[in-house]
Structure formats: structure tokens, C-alpha cells
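Onboarding guide, step 5: your first structure request.
Type a short instruction followed by the sequence, for example:

Predict the 3D structure of this protein.
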Amino acid sequence: MFGKVAVQLRSRGARRKLCSYVWNRAHVFQDIVMKQYGVAIHGAGWVAAEHVRAFDADSRARVVAISSRSESSAIRLAQETGQTDAVIETELDAVLARGDVDVLAVCTPHDLHPANVIAAAEAGKHVLIEKPAALDLAGLRAMRNALSVAGVVSVVGFVLRWNPCSTSSRPSKRTGRLAIFTWPRLTTCMDSDRGMTSTSGPVRWHRGDRHS
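The system replies with C-alpha cells like these:
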């Protein structure tokens, strides 16, 4: 293959075209890296505040809107995180209609994630989804299909996604071996003032008016 490419590039015109292609691609990549993305936080619970702080610490992101079904909750979140310039909304459609919003962070109750993500994808917004992404396979597939059709970028906010222990557990491309880790059982203590208490039991996902 490389021999054929070398033959094709013997002419000065072909080499000029290749250089132009590489230069343009490099500048497009640079534009993507250097762009500052407008972020909307949808949902105003305690985890939303952590998302706001994370985006605020990255110069490539700027929180432009905070939305919640409760306007007072959205205002409180903006005040707690110092986002005094963020627009407060109570309707997701209004957030997704904004031209300065590139990314939607979905921090709503778990049962609402599929509808939120699908709406964001259809509006052409990239999506960060707080875990769990959905509560059933049908919801996951509906989200996957909408994101695929829209061609936007999505990621689920698993805390240990890029932790060396997690990445090392994948099968080695060279040896095919799978690393297995033994994890200790820990009792997690969380701040009760933020809506969570000490627990050593299973995580309870939100299902509308009930939990599981």
C-alpha cells in the first residue's frame, strides 16, 4: 500500500495536495481542541454541583445554563458554585434551543435519563450522562440509537473509567490475558446534609416515585 502511495506522490501536484490536506486537518483538530464548549447542567441535585465544579476547572468549558424543574433549586446551585452568569431555566427544551449550549450534562433522576438524552441528541448537543445511564435495556438502546443517528459525542460519568486498575483489567492486545483484581468491601460515608448517608449496602437507583 505504501509503495502505491509513494508512486502516486511522485508528482509535485500530488505532494502539494497531500501537504494541503495534512495542514487543513491539523488546523481542524486544533480548532476542536482549542474551542471553548458551552455547557448546560440539567438537574440541580448534589451531584450536579460536582459536574459544575469539574467543568469550571477546565478552560475548554464554560457553564452557560443551569436547569431544573425547580427554579429555586437551579438558582441555589448557581449560587453555591459561583455561576452567577449562568442562565436559569426550568424547561429542557429552552436549554436545548440555545445556540451557546454545546454540551448537556444530564444530572436528573435516573428514570428521566433516556428522555433527556434523546432530546439532547435530537437537538445536536453532546451529552455527559450521570450514572446509571438508564434503568433498563430498552432505555439504553433508545439512547444509543438517538446518539448514533445524531452523530454527537456521549459519555457516562463513571468515576473510575480512566483509573489504571480499570484500564488494566481489559484483555491485553499482546497476550490476550485478562487482569483480575480483588476489591475490598468498604463502608462509604457521605455528607447527610447533601442528601446521602453512610451506607455499606447496595446503591439504590431512582425510579420515579420509588427506588430500587
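Each response can be followed by summary notes, for example: Residues 36-156 form a domain with the Rossmann fold fold (CATH 3.40.50.720).
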